[in-house]
């Protein structure tokens, strides 16, 4: 990979790296690693990172690069990156854009990427989907996030476990593959939930499942909406890649594109299945409502003769029939029963 010079860095005083909140130092650094050709990543501090970036080209190995991962919840993180790291303006513009759609763009010999990921403890809540911003250069990879994310945490663990990366784009590809694995796991978990809902639906337990399906569908729609632009952005990058990308890195990006396309198809299929289940639940609720209304109508019809006759006989006027007959009550009861049977027969015949 060709070595391209970075803009000169201003001389800085020694920075004391102290532990801060959420596992980052006072400048928001969560972790930093130095990678050399054929070697595992070595953890380093901000002081060491600035020293590596300021070193002359002849003092560096041709395949050396750094990865710095920042926590944007620290108010000083963005200002420190702007003051000390040679990052393109497009990276900082992406931090403040309203659109969080996943994309990878070429900007001034950098790859600026916005990658949507799920929170470390994901429980199918729409608010647990957040963005990770990256700037990739032949000598430097900078990533930033506002909350812990699962894919980048898996990447950090892989580096700590000794995984070797020959280039910054290889690191990006590993992150994309981790993200694909996380999404595949989410689709599998969602499929299990849909299977459980479908089983309950077969047993007639559908009222409680409507809210669960609606929540799950909202999460999947949000995931698809944020991830859908990613294959298109990768295809645009593959058509006009930066000159410092080699063939192996391009092949890995193509594989990541194919994996995301498969995941997106699975998401779309699962959403369609949830939609069909929701329609089935709606149909069953409507059918049960119709049965309840029919039962109420039948009861009202059956009670109509006795209410009418009781109202007539309850009038406080003269001439009420059978008032002096010893069999008056039995006669009226038989009349009411006859009208009730006829009304019931008419109602059930209409239903059939």
UniProtKB/TrEMBL annotation:
It is found in: Cell membrane. The chain crosses the membrane at residues 293-315, 327-348. CDD domains: ZntB_u1 (cd12834). This is Magnesium transporter CorA. Its main location: membrane. One of its GO terms (molecular function) is cobalt ion binding. Keywords: Cell inner membrane, Cell membrane, Coiled coil, Ion transport, Membrane, Transmembrane, Transmembrane helix, Transport, Zinc. The keyword Coiled coil applies. Belongs to the CorA metal ion transporter (MIT) (TC 1.A.35) family. InterPro entries: CorA_cytoplasmic_dom (IPR045861), CorA_TM1_TM2 (IPR045863), MgTranspt_CorA/ZnTranspt_ZntB (IPR002523). Residues 253-287 form a coiled coil. One of its GO terms (cellular component) is plasma membrane. It comes from Pseudaquabacterium pictum. PANTHER family: CORA FAMILY METAL ION TRANSPORTER (EUROFUNG) (PTHR46494), ZINC TRANSPORT PROTEIN ZNTB (PTHR46494:SF3). The keyword Acetylation does not apply. SUPFAM superfamilies: CorA soluble domain-like, Magnesium transport protein CorA, transmembrane region. It is a multi-pass membrane protein.
């Amino acid at each position: 990979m060709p070595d391209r010079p970075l803009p000169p860095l201003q001389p800085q005083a020694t920075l004391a790296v102290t532990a801060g909140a959420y596992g980052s130092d006072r400048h928001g650094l969560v972790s930093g690693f130095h990678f050399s050709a054929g070697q595992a990543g070595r953890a380093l501090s901000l002081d060491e990172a600035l020293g590596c970036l300021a070193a002359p080209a002849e003092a560096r190995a041709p395949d050396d690069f750094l990865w710095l991962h920042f926590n944007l919840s620290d108010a000083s993180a963005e200002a420190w990156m702007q003051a000390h790291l040679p990052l393109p303006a497009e990276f900082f513009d992406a931090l403040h854009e309203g659109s969080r759609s996943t994309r990878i763009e070429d900007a001034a010999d950098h790859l600026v990427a916005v990658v949507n990921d799920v929170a470390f403890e994901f429980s199918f809540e729409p608010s647990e989907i957040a963005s990770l911003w990256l700037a990739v250069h032949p000598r430097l990879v900078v990533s930033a996030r506002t909350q812990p994310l699962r894919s980048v945490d898996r990447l950090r663990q892989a580096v700590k476990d000794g995984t070797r990366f020959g280039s910054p784009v290889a690191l990006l590809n590993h992150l994309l593959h981790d993200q694909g694995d996380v999404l595949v796991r989410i689709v599998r978990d969602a499929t299990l939930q849909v299977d459980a809902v479908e089983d309950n639906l077969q047993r007639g337990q559908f009222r409680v499942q409507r809210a669960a399906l609606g929540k799950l569908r909202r999460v999947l729609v949000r995931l698809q909406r944020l991830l859908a632009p990613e294959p298109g952005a990768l295809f645009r990058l593959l058509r006009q890649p930066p000159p410092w990308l080699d063939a192996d890195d391009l092949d890995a990006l193509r594989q990541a594109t194919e994996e995301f396309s498969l995941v997106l198809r699975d998401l779309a299929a699962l959403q369609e299945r949830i939609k069909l289940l929701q329609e089935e639940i709606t149909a069953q609720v409507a059918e049960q409502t119709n049965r309840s209304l029919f039962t109420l109508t039948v009861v009202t019809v059956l009670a109509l003769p006795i209410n009418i006759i009781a109202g007539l006989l309850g009038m406080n006027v003269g001439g009420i029939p059978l008032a002096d007959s010893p069999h008056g009550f039995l006669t009226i009861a038989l009349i009411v029963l006859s009208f009730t049977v006829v009304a019931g027969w008419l109602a059930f015949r209409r239903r059939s």
